[in-house]
Amino acid sequence: MEKVFLCKVSDLAENQVKKIDNSDHGDIAVYNLGGQYYATADLCTHATASLAEGDIEDDLITCPVHWGQFHIPTGKAQGFPCEIDLRTYPVEVEGDEIFALIAVDQALIAKG
Amino acid sequence: MGNMIKTIDVTDSLTNLKDACDLENGRISGKIFYDKAIYEQELEKVFARCWLFVAHESQIPKTGDYITTTMGEDEVIVIRQKSGGIKVFLNACPHRGNKVCFAESGSTRGFICNYHGWSFNVEGNLVGQHESGVYEDSDFDKSKWGLKEVAKVDSWKGLVFATFDPESPSLQEYLGPMTWYLDALFDNQEGGTEFVGGCIRSTYECNWKIAAENFVGDILHAGWTHDSAARAMLGGAVAKVSDFEESYSVNWNGHGYEFALDTVGNVAVLGESALNKYLHTIKPSVAERLGDFRSNMIGSVSSCTIFPNFSFLPGQNTVRVWQPRGPNKIELFTWVVVNKSAPEDVKEKWRKGAMMTFSPTGVFEMDDGENWEYCTKTAKGRVTSQQDLFVGLGMDTLLTDTPLPANVYEGQLNEANSRAFYQYWFDMLNAKSWSEVPDRNLGKKEAE
């Protein structure tokens, strides 16, 4: 399990999403849903798109390219064209810092 | 970036138009309403070059709000930008040309083509495709394949116009002093105007010019064509226009406005006395804003066409575009315009009144449609189409000592505007570039 720093709590306003570049594990999207933090892979499972450029609606993220949706807490794909679930990562908050916990085998899958 | 449209090649003009359009002698022939070759020239030399009405600002107030319409036969999307501006795109995917937006209006984050999943954002940029990896493997440059954007978009008092031609004059220059008259309806109160309700669409088997010319300057037909409808709505005949002490026909660059100064002659035919009352109530403030003269025009017996195919009736407050669909067919798009500051019940009465009179089942619209269809259909006959038609009323009525702007003619029972409309049409068809369009304007650019 690798602990990866994402961003500061103070840098992620409520109902915002932010893309964290990560060449080892693939880019990560970190979300603040009403004070709860979540992390998923940033790359859409359908086509080339950064989910962090999409819109949050309740607890769904809408891909900016074909408007497919994923459930942020579970990564569940909501329907065509997004049919493959999104990788999610457990999140830990320590003081002002948000971390993702990435299992090594998970990391390999995320990198593709 | 969206991508600017490629301008089209201008083909040679037809050589025999003069036979069908001789305005100095007040003659046209029915051929111009039925000839396919002339129609093809119109799409290229009129509709692909002139400023065309595409929307009212009030229809698309927020980012991502859009309407779809046509410029000539070209389908376009008119969409509000994050910057507050408006862009107009061809409603066609740059991959295989499929239509990307099928709705008449809405609010969206972009458009996704049904065919291969090309996706465009509000700015028209291509943001991705289904199977995006194969494009990346082909070194595909996304930035070059956005929706095609028209050359220019501009607006006057809420009316949004666009042109495909980067060489066209500015909208201000194109409208010229006609804007002084447009303000009588579109800027007579603080806050300007808005459209209420949706767009009513219908088709007629008539040539677009017949309809546009009717609004450019033909009040002559009203007392005869609309007699029964007027009796139903008013309980009496249409006002006898020749009895008006003062009325005018004014034109510029083929646009025309004919009007009396009776304040409420047009609005009265909606049969809603509350609307007459509203206009009388605002009249003093209009006089303060625009002067006495134009305060008499806010709902008077009048009509206007902005060349080529945008028309409206003050008073009835119907606004319309005669969309060309072949030489002998139009699709009519109509909307109802009201002052933003008008009370809600007044707005609603205008919407209903316009439905009763100037919708597909409206009492006046039906009268007109029948006439226009047969003005077109008779020209199907090869011999009939080449006979002279008379457009010669009011040949010597130009006023040279008036303080009013534009080319001003005495009296609204006058075919001066119709002649000016057909003359500009003729000039456009004969000009390979804007510099070849003769300036036939004789009047003043500004009111004195």
From TrEMBL, chain B:
The keyword NAD applies. Residues 51-125 form the Rieske domain. The keyword Oxidoreductase applies. GO terms for molecular function: dioxygenase activity. Transmembrane segments: none annotated. Gene3D superfamilies: Naphthalene 1,2-dioxygenase Alpha Subunit, Chain A, domain 1, Rieske [2Fe-2S] iron-sulphur domain. Keywords: 2Fe-2S, Aromatic hydrocarbons catabolism, Dioxygenase, Iron, Iron-sulfur, Metal-binding, NAD, Oxidoreductase. Belongs to the bacterial ring-hydroxylating dioxygenase alpha subunit family. This is Aromatic ring-hydroxylating dioxygenase subunit alpha. The lineage of its organism: Bacteria, Pseudomonadati, Pseudomonadota, Gammaproteobacteria, Oceanospirillales.
